[in-house]
Design a protein that fits this description.
It contains 4 helices and no strands. By secondary structure, it is mainly alpha-helical.
Length: 99
Amino acid sequence: MESLRQRVYEAKVACETSVGNTAREKLGELRGLLRLGISHGSFQKQEAQQIMEYLRLLKPEIFVEEPHDVFSRLAAWLRNFFVPPPRTASQQPQQRQSR
């Protein structure tokens, strides 16, 4: 069952590093692996709860379900299309010093 622990760890790291729907998919995989681990005795229920609580604190947005109706999806698509992505520190233009 050590390989199951390894898969849970990999799924946890994937949840931490992924964003959007990919992170939600990895969260579903992690939930399934934790349930499997609990039923086979390689994880205690408390240990699985701690992992899920840690992820909920780290990335609460992946625990919110995406809307499934057409209008909500259209609105989300329009927001993603018209709102530019936030700039990171490395992408911001460097200010030139004037003399």
